[in-house]
Amino acid sequence: MDTLKQAQQLLARMDEREQQLALTLIKRIGKHQAHGAGFTWSLGVVYEDVQPGFSRCSLQIDPGHYNPAGIAHGGVAYSLLDTAMGGAFWTALERPLGCATLELKINYLRPIVDGTIIATAELVERTTRFGILTGRVVNEAGELLALGQGTFAIINYPKE
């Protein structure tokens, strides 16, 4: 069965709200960039600035990000911050080295309801085995929404 036919069958089984959420997801994935992968594309992450030891990512909040209370699920800000931190550290490493999140602590300061949120991350310290990064999530007005600190392991990517 071709992909379009499968999509039509799935949409036919959904109510209108579910169809709108599916369309939102398809639109997000359709805007993806060279950076990232399926998960960040599905969230709608946009890489605005990525350079060694620093990155800035953003995403537009939409109803697909909401929890039952009508505000963005905390995992949206967490994932955006994790993505920004990973980008900042990954760009500071020499290939074939890469990184993986060991831990990330986040403090949520304000609810996220709508608009664009922006995460910035900065490499604070690097050793031979890990990196420590800090990050912030703000709204378009510059209001601080969340603060985070992460530890990322340095890993060897397998040779191709």
UniProtKB/TrEMBL annotation:
Residues 70-145 form the Thioesterase domain. Keywords: Hydrolase. Coiled coil: none annotated. SUPFAM superfamilies: Thioesterase/thiol ester dehydrase-isomerase (SSF54637). It holds the Pfam family 4HBT. This is Thioesterase domain-containing protein.
